[in-house]
Amino acid sequence: MSDTVAPNGQVRVRMAPSPTGFLHIGGARTALFNWLFAKHHKGAFILRIDDTDMARSTDESMHEIYTALKWLGLEWDEGGDKGGPYAPYLQSERKPIYEKYVTQLLDNGNAYHCYCTAEELDVIRTEARAAKSTRSYDGRCRHLSQETVESYIAEGRKPTVRIRMPDNHIRVDDLILGSRNIDPATLEDEVIVRSNGMPNYNLTSIVDDAEMHITHVIRGTEHLNNTPKQIAIANALSLNLPQFAHIPLVLDDSGRKLSKRHHGDLVAVNRYREQGYLSEAMLNFVARLGWSYDDKQEIFSVTELIDKFDLDRVGKSGSVFDIKKLEWLNAHYINELDISARTDAVMPFWEEEGLVVSTTNRDWLENIVEAVGERLTTFQDIVPQTRYFFTDDFEYEAKAVKKWWGSSDEKKEKTCEILTNLSQILQDIPEFDLETIESAIWKYTDENDIKRVAAMQSMRIAMTGTSFGPSLFDIVILLGRDDVLKRIEKAVTSI
Ligand code: GLU
Q: Rounded to 5 degrees, what are φ and ψ at 112?
């Protein structure tokens, strides 16, 4: 039964990513649930790197995972690049520890060397499949004679080490999914050390969980099948077991597991950082993938999450990744920021497009952000929504032109007349401020029986190329008199 207690009675959880790619949404969720559980119970969150697969693990991926976790604010107490009382936290540096346990297993008869070649294993697997067995290895090397072993060694065969699965049922207690009894007949003697001497995940994981005094293993249900194997290994070594909690999968809207393979960088956490999502929105979004407080509340601050999070409110079924909800949350958190902070956040996106340089007037930029108001879903949206403030080199949108400037000669002529008159009015007014502009324009439209909306939309297309956006008066003031007159002239020529 689960009985690990950390030396000081503290809750200790870990995230153990394999650095074989970017941190994906599922990984971020595992990290967040562990981190929240640790914070809620005033425990420790450990970041262990599962990099025993030397061929696929890279430093670059490890650092990308660090960056993504730090961006989310999920700082770890021990591990990764930080060290701690149970260092090293990179499994590739812990080989001597695993060797000690493997020796113990071989000595107490719970593990054995397997000399089967890849070809032999293929044949065994095919036979097992034909016999509809759930085991793809039949344990034939459990009882090799000394003579056979010597002949294999003489042939140059390099053995693997396999754990001898127990004969009795393995009980798995899961804090989310409940308890199960696993029939050992369904489990094969798992390879725990490869023929190149590298230990495998099921051994290293449970050994490190015990060595690092992990009290709760919280991870995705994709590891459900590994848990009885890890329990068998722990029992064979008389190690204390952590408690297990498996979080149901994250699915796409057609019910398929969200994966790097099928969904590409749509699932990469850093992609959202680069596109101008706020980490608060991402955290809030990820928290609700599988966890809910009362089925109603959607917006949670980090403090509130720490306060309210516990495993008893994690659901048993999969949760759906809904990008629309992430966008909605992001817009919410953007709108919570004051104009100055919002301006800071959009600045890199303007700069990247070459729209803003170091000498661009800061107040003017803040006024643009203010005019955009609550229209940003991501910070990246600032570019298409404000490009026209920085340049008049834009196309007039065909649909808007047809609707407001007109397609018949008569309508076009009328539009030109209105725009020319507006240009004259804007040139003549003594002050170029909101009140003066507004009253002069309304005076003109009302006296000449011109629909206000028609005049406004015709102007708007001339200023921005489109028929929607911030208040036209804000745009006109932000562009300034010279630019406005130039744009009207350009529009009239174009019509
Ligand atoms: N390296 C495993 C993974 O990234 C860790 C699984 C576990 O938490 O035990 O999925």
A: -150, 160
Q: What percent of the chain has pLDDT over 70?
A: 99
CA proximity to 91, closest of 199, 215, 172: 199
70 part of the active site: no
Cα dist from 435 to 307, 430, 480, whole Å: 50, 11, 15
Helix (H, G, I), strand (E, B) or coil at 185: helix
Q: Please identify, by atom number, the ligand 1 atom nearest to the C-alpha of residue 14.
A: 8
Tokens of 318: 């999969």
Atom of ligand 1 nearest to the CA of 30: 8
* Diameter of the chain measured on Cα atoms: 111
> If you search the block for the tokens 């206000």, which residue do you land on?
452
Q: Is 411 exposed, middle or buried (0-12, 13-18, 19+ CB in 10 A)?
A: middle
Looking at 260, 325, 403, 414, which residue is catalytic?
A: 260
Pairing of strands 191-193, 250-251: unpaired
Task: Fill in the DSSP letter of residue 405.
Answer: I
Q: Which residues contact 20 (CB under 8 A, 6 or more apart)?
A: 53, 56, 57, 58, 61
Structure tokens, 349:
């996106």
pLDDT mean over 296-302? 95
What residue owns the CA closest to ligand 1's atom 5? 16
Q: What confidence score (pLDDT) does residue 321 get? A: 93
Amino acid of residue 100: K
Q: With CA atoms as reference, report the closest residue to 245 among 263, 261, 223, 262.
A: 223
CA of 135 to the centre of ligand 1 (A): 23
Q: What is the pTM of this model?
A: 0.90
Q: Per-residue pLDDT for 2 more than 60?
A: no
Q: Concatenated DSSP letters for 334-399?
A: HHHS-HHHHHHHHHHHHHHTTS--TTS-HHHHHHHHHHHGGG-SSGGGHHHHHHHHH-S--PPPHH
Number of H helices, E strands in the chain: 21, 12
Q: What is the DSSP string of 270-297?
A: HHHHHTT--HHHHHHHHHTTTB-SSSS-
Report in angstroms the alpha-carbon separations of 249 from 102, 173, 181, 385. Answer: 33, 19, 22, 36
What is the DSSP secondary structure assignment for residue 55, as one 8-state letter?
T
Other CB atoms within 10 Å distance of the CB of residue 374: 9
Find the helix or strand (DSSP H, E) in which 320 lies: strand 319-320
Whether the per-residue pLDDT at 495 is higher than 90: the answer is no
From CA 182, how far away is CA 168, in angstroms rounded? 9
Buried-exposed string 220-232: b where 16+ CB fall within 10 A, e elsewhere = bbebbeebbbbbb
